[in-house]
Each structure stands twice: as structure tokens, then as C-alpha cells.
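Suppose a colleague, Dr. K., hands you the sequence of a protein chain of 153 amino acids and asks what its three-dimensional shape might be. Before reaching for any lab equipment, you can write down a predicted structure in C-alpha cell form. Begin with the sequence itself:
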Amino acid sequence: MLKNVKDEVFNIVLPYATDLGLELVEVEYVKKHNGMNLTVFIDKEGGVTINDCEALHKTIDAPLDKADPTEGASYILNVSSLGIDRPLKTQRDFKRNLNKEIEVTFYAPYFGNKKLAGVLTSFDKNSFILKTDNQLHEIAYNQPANIKPIIKF
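The predicted structure, expressed as C-alpha cells, is then:
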């Protein structure tokens, strides 16, 4: 049976991230120009520093080598913050962006639009509410292709 590298790494890294006061958000395992990259995305209240990334990287390097989630395949280990324009994926992402402007892109037209922008007014485990021009849209999490914060400088 094919191993799910991302899930296995997530489970290995989670307690180490938690011990360091970090939220483990996502694990990505993809081929890039320099080979296979295993990237661990973290967050914390007040923002992630380069020191947070370095501390987690040093902490998880040996346990990942021992567990060998890639079954001997080489990879480059990265630990990264989310970035301010990262798509909303977790309940914490939605909480962090509550009452802020977001952009929702759909796979198929949603009421004639492939893209909607508005204010995230609420969310629960099944859907979120987007307010656009005094109209409320209840959108199930499986409908959008992408949900991103709107960044204004």
C-alpha cells in the first residue's frame, strides 16, 4: 500500500511543533526544480519568525530521518510560515480572517460568478458566510476552488 507521506510527516511533526508553541498547519510534499521538497508550514499568534522555523527544523530533522516517511527517497526539508496571502484552509485561518475581506474563486459558476469578494462574517464546521454588497452568501467549504485574504497596503 502506498504511504501518505504528508499525513505521516504531519503526525510525526505535530507534537514537536506543539512543544515549541507553534501551530502545524500543513505539510506539502512536491517535486520542484531542485528535487523533492518536504515543506512544513507553521503559524503562531503574533507571527512566525525565522528563529521559529530554524528551531522546528532542527528539532524534527532527526525524528524524520529515523521514521523515514519517504521510504529512502531523498528530499529537501523546509519549514516555512504561511505567508500573508496563503489560502484559507483551516478553522484557525477562518477565525484569523473573520470580519476581513476575502476573495472566493469557484470551480463552477456560483450564481453566475467564478469569483466573489466580500467580508467573511461567520463560519462553522460546514460553511462560511460571505457578505457582498449587503447580500449574504452561505458557501459550503467544498464549493470554492480557492479562498484567499484580500491584502491591502
